[in-house]
Design goal:
rod-shaped, Sig_transdc_His_kin-like_C, alpha+beta, histidine kinase, single chain, 3 domains, Heat Shock Protein 90, 7 strands, five-stranded mixed β-sheet, HATPase_dom, 12% strand, 384 residues, 9 helices
Amino acid sequence: MLNLFKEIFSANGYVPHGHCYLWQRELVSFHVLADLLIAIAYFSIPITLLYFIKKREDIPFSGIFVLFSLFIISCGITHLMAIVTLWYPFYWLSGILKIISASVSLLTAFELVGVIPFALALPSPEKLTEVNYQLQKEIRDRQKIEIKLIKLNQNLKRSNEELEQFAYVASHDLQEPLRTITSFTEILAEEYNDSFDNTAKEYLKYISSSSQKMKKLIQDLLRLSKVSHKSQKLEQVNLNEIVKEAIDFVSPSIHQRKINISCQVLPHIQGDKVQLTHLWLNLISNALKFNNNGLIEIKIGVENHDNNWLFYITDNGIGIDPEYQEKIFAIFQRLHSQHQYEGTGIGLALCQRVVSYHGGKIWVESELGKGSTFYFTMPKESTT
């Protein structure tokens, strides 16, 4: 190995390259200056390329930039070696440096062939400008649409608030004349009952029955309009007590029917007690009302999910056609006549409003003749 190094750095009787120029001062100086300037240029180019790569790490094909830098540096070294060999005939060393330069050059050329197809696929500056213009146009269009949506949402919110206010005021104001009608109907029935024939008495029954239905409708409308008001005080509510109270409330109207109600232990939640009472009252009442079986079976339970509680109430009632399972939550949406099943068509709309107010969702799964299961969620962050 030592002998090899000696051989590489040995003159071995070779003549320095300067002899070819007859040691003419001007000619030798001219070649030295030319090679030196080329070497300086070759060394400055890769420094600039490497600086560019460092500052722009997102630039594609950074590896080819590194190979170009090495290739240019090796070329610069060969020019410096040309200066050395003017005075020192280290031609073996010069040859080795040229071999190294040739190897780097070939590797760069090989890698460049593989990069060319990808480089050609890059969009031109004109294409990038066009794409950028289109993106900016899409952004402007979307911003305009967002502004319109915001305005529409504001208008819709204002309309809903005005509608809720109207429903509240109208329902509230309707109670007074309704009380008057009911009161005078009762007076007529008590004081003038003997003066009326059977037809008149039947008419009074119709008036009294319709007044009670109107009273129930007005009360439901008032409850529905109050749900969206955020001023209600939230508190810790024991749902077990709420469900028990709801069952006790509807029990007198169904005391002649056989009922089997099972209920799991339910969690406490942060909510509006009055609203939650109406929610469970409506769901339990519907499970009992829309059921023609000799034995009514109702199961109430809850599932513990990651971020929320999933409550459900299952019955063995008449069921709901899949076609109407989303429509039933709309206000005044009824699937049966008053003669078949009494109601105002507001109960499930009220349930949906209450669940939405508490940050949850409600839906139903059902088949005709096979009962229904109503599900609704409540976020855990508002429960204990």
